[in-house]
């Protein structure tokens, strides 16, 4: 069985994807077990001695100055979960919920939270046996952690709330019983706070959006190359000398990738052969795609830091026997990153829609039929495909407004600045999904235009991509229901079939040479 070993320090984005989408088993390392037990011993000692420590022997937020007796410390933790379960909206997807649980496990496994080992193991068992709490997607301010949504995760651990098990939604108690996982009788001192004080909801949503965005950017290059074939685009603008004198790495990589994909094409052109210059949507794609790739690289670096960080409060330093109340639960580093991700993806959709418009508009498409269909007037062809793309791009412009510039004080102004990072992550996810649909529309339109142009030999990569498109959709000779084709190509993108086909073709060419 494929496994991911958790010690709190070495989790990767690929590990998270493997656990939440490919059902890899999660194993806690011996190193982590030692660290978890050590920090728990300090919590028990503080409770026994009656020392004042935030969230352990005091209330929360504005109630941090209210002392809690040893007898009430367990009730305090249970009340925390019950009262904080205020999430609303649609449930998060199962892969997102699995990612949330995994990231929380990795955080707790570092040994700075004071949780009991058996509590941590319950969460691991839920991942491995497929018990997925119903976690509403809205209700987090992104500071003091993702309190409301994470509380819904913990509800299932104590047999409250709802969960999905083997595709069926049911009371959490049933899901735990059916899976053979023991419901926790109670949460001990500090445990409720340890389970919900962190940035794992925003990070999980944004991590999966970022992973999908990496594949989408590769697909966007392929979509562009198909459009270049259809419009007899000028490849001179991709010359490496042009990009080396402005050495942004994403730009350089994109220009090279385009030339590799288009190598051998008989449909593209050189400057002066057909026209002197292309419009910016063709000529400036390396600069635009490249900038978004650089932005996503930045976001990935922030995610890699965050998923292996301690975002709990207070933080337990067992070796020094000290507990410090800080602010690592604040989502600002991730909030800014996911706003940046949303902007970067919005631009990918923007330029894709402009290329789509260039394909369908008879004033711009260099001799192709209006709206890429024969017998125009009787047939509307790809007219409304562009409408739909324009709608999605416009929606993205609204969604791209940064969430992280907003803050609403909470908890009687004790928590007087919040990140709105979970909103930023959800917006980035939605923009990514819209962008994927727009790129699917461009790919469909480019393949249609290639056929109408009179298909000649395409580039090594574009031939492979075109073949995949035509395996799944046919030439539009007369009007038909277009959403079916759009959804089909979007599914091809989700499965990464275009990227795999192009990569295989380029690798084969490299081996032959």
Secondary structure elements and their pairing?
Elements: E1 3-6, H1 13-22, E2 25-28, H2 30-49, H3 73-84, E3 88-91, H4 94-109, H5 117-129, E4 131-133, E5 136-138, H6 147-157, E6 162-165, E7 168-171, H7 172-179, H8 191-196, H9 200-230, H10 240-244, H11 249-262, H12 280-283, H13 285-306, E8 315-317, E9 322-324, H14 332-360, H15 383-399, H16 421-453, H17 460-472, H18 482-494, H19 497-512
Parallel strand pairs: 1-2
Antiparallel strand pairs: 3-5, 4-6, 6-7, 8-9
Helix pairs in contact: 1-4, 3-6, 4-5, 4-9, 9-11, 9-13, 9-14, 9-16, 9-17, 11-13, 13-14, 14-15, 14-16, 15-16, 16-18, 17-19
Tell me the strand order in the biggest sheet.
Answer: 4-6-7
Query: pLDDT under 50 segments (min length 5)?
Result: none
Helix content: 55-70%
How confident is the prediction overall: mean pLDDT? 94
Note the main sheet: 3 strands, antiparallel
Q: Using only CA atoms, what is the Rg?
A: 26 Å
Number of E strands: 9
Shape: elongated
Query: SS-based structural class?
Result: mainly alpha
Report on the structure:
This protein has 513 residues and is mostly helical. The chain is 57% helix and 6% strand. The chain has helices at residues 13-22, 30-49, 73-84, 94-109, 117-129, 147-157, 172-179, 191-196, 200-230, 240-244, 249-262, 280-283, 285-306, 332-360, 383-399, 421-453, 460-472, 482-494, 497-512, and strands at residues 3-6, 25-28, 88-91, 131-133, 136-138, 162-165, 168-171, 315-317, 322-324. A 3-stranded antiparallel β-sheet has the order 4-6-7. A hairpin with a 4-residue loop joins strand 8 (315-317) and strand 9 (322-324). It is elongated, with a radius of gyration of 26 Å. The model has no long low-confidence stretch (mean pLDDT 94).
């Amino acid at each position: 069985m494929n496994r991911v070993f958790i010690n709190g320090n070495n989790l990767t984005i690929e590990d998270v994807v493997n656990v939440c989408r490919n059902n890899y088993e999660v194993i806690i390392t011996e190193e982590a077990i030692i660290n978890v037990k050590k920090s728990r011993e300090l919590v028990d000692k503080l409770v026994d001695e009656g020392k004042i420590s935030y969230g352990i022997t005091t209330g929360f937020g504005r109630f941090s100055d209210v002392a809690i007796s040893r007898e009430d410390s367990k009730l305090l933790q249970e009340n925390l979960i019950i009262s904080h379960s205020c999430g609303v909206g649609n449930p998060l997807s199962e892969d997102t919920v699995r990612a949330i649980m995994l990231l929380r496990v990795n955080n707790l496994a570092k040994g700075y939270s004071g949780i009991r080992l058996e509590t941590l193991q319950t969460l691991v068992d839920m991942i491995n046996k497929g018990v997925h709490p119903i976690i509403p997607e809205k209700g987090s301010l992104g500071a003091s952690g993702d309190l409301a949504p994470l509380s819904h995760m913990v509800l299932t651990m104590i047999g409250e709330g709802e969960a999905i098990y083997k595709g069926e939604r049911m009371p959490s108690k049933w899901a735990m019983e059916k899976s053979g996982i023991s419901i926790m009788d109670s949460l001990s001192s500090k445990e409720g706070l340890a389970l919900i004080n962190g940035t794992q909801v925003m990070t999980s949503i944004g991590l999966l959006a970022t992973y999908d965005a990496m594949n989408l950017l590769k697909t966007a290059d392929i979509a562009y190359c198909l459009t270049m074939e259809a419009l007899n685009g000028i490849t001179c603008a991709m010359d490496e000398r042009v990009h080396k004198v402005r050495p942004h790495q994403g730009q350089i990589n994109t220009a090279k990738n385009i030339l590799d994909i288009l190598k051998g094409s008989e449909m593209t052109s050189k400057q002066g052969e057909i026209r002197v210059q292309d419009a910016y949507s063709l000529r400036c794609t390396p600069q635009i795609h490249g900038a978004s790739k650089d932005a996503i690289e930045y976001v990935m670096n922030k995610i890699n830091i965050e998923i292996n960080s301690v975002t709990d409060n207070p933080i337990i330093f067992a070796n020094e026997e000290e507990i410090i109340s800080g602010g690592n639960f604040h989502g600002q580093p991730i909030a800014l990153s996911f706003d940046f991700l949303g902007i970067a993806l919005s631009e990918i959709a923007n330029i894709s829609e402009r290329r789509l418009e260039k394909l369908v508009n008879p004033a711009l498409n260099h001799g192709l039929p209006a709206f890429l269909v024969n017998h125009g007037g009787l047939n509307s062809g790809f007219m409304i495909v562009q409408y739909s793309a324009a709608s999605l791009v416009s929606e993205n412009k609204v969604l791209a407004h940064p969430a992280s510039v907003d803050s609403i004080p909470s908890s009687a102004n004790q928590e007087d600045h919040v990140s709105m990072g979970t909103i930023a992550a959800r917006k980035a996810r939605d923009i990514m999904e819209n962008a994927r649909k727009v790129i699917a529309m461009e790919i469909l339109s480019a393949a249609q235009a290639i056929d109408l142009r009179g298909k000649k030999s395409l580039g090594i990569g574009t031939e492979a991509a075109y073949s995949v498109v035509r395996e799944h959709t046919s030439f539009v000779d007369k009007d038909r229901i277009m959403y079916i084709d759009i959804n089909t190509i979007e599914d091809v993108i989700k499965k990464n079939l275009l990227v795999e086909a192009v990569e295989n073709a380029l690798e084969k060419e490299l081996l032959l040479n």
